[in-house]
Amino acid sequence: MKKFSSILAIGLLLTITGLSPITAQAIDAEALHNASCIECHSRMTGGDGSLLYSREDRLTHNQAALSARVHRCATLSETGWSDAEIKAVSQYLDEQFYHFSK
After folding, report:
1. Which of 22, 29, 55, 66 shows a CA-CA span of 20 to 30 A to 82?
2. Domain extents for the chain?
3. Where do the H-state alpha helices sit in the chain?
4. Burial of 14 (0-12, 13-18, 19+ CB in 10 A)
């Protein structure tokens, strides 16, 4: 019973803080991005998929829009990413390309 109580307490703590077990682990956002995004983006641009992030007429202009776009793409491409993984990929893209958080 004590073990069950500990597991329940950890689950409750993770729920209250908004963390999931995967958030407690390091998420390799770059690897997720490279595995799930680059091929489609390369087809869209006819070559370098990262051009979508740096083009002058890009559709994403703030952190909230970036997070929404990553969520939309992850859903449409059926990546199966968790909310924590979507957040990690959004942060990775911001750090590498967008620089909204500066």
Report:
1. 55
2. 27-98
3. 2-17, 21-24, 29-36, 38-45, 51-54, 63-76, 83-93
4. middle
Which pLDDT tens digit goes with each residue over 10-57? 444 445 545 554 443 589 999 999 999 998 899 988 988 888 888 888
- In this structure, the number of other CB atoms found within 10 A of the CB of residue 77 comes to 13
Question: What distances in angstroms separate CA 77 from CA 26, 51, 82, 90, 101, one per listed residue?
Answer: 23, 19, 13, 16, 26
Cα–Cα distance for residue pair 95/31, rounded to 1 Å: 15
Q: Which pTM value belongs to this model? A: 0.72
Interacting residues of 91 by C-beta distance below 8 A, sequence separation 6+: 29, 101
**Rounded to whole angstroms, how far apart are CA atoms 100 and 8?**
38
DSSP assignment letter at 79: -
